Amino acid sequence: MFSRILSALFLTIGSLNAIEALAASCQVSTRSLSQKIPAVVTQSCYTYRGIEEGAIKWSCSDETLGMLEHEKKLVDNCPSNYLSSCTSTLTQESLASHRAISDIKTGTPMVIPDGAKIVTYFYSVEEKEQAKQDCTALGGNWQNNQNN
Hints:
alpha+beta
């Protein structure tokens, strides 16, 4: 009986680790903590391209910045029913986490490969023109989803 319980426990732990290992995107829900400061984007999802697997885990954690609260969740992929997307160069700043600028074990700076990108998909946007301007002002490429 004990061995069956132990086997089930190891199987469950292994499954959770496999799910986390597969997570390659971060789903974000944003809400304003004040009616006077609206959230520009309320539902989005981002993924990294051209960087080591697992790097997204460093930036995909809940945070509150000013009057905006961001709830983040690791997911396998961003859903395909997005309204628009922004593709830009991945930088230390766009990793959006102080833990992302160094390797936790060694303390050495994380090297971002040339050509690495961050792709943000937008699902619910309160101010689309502002989101587009924020994307392009930083050198990003804005695209509307032709399927939506």
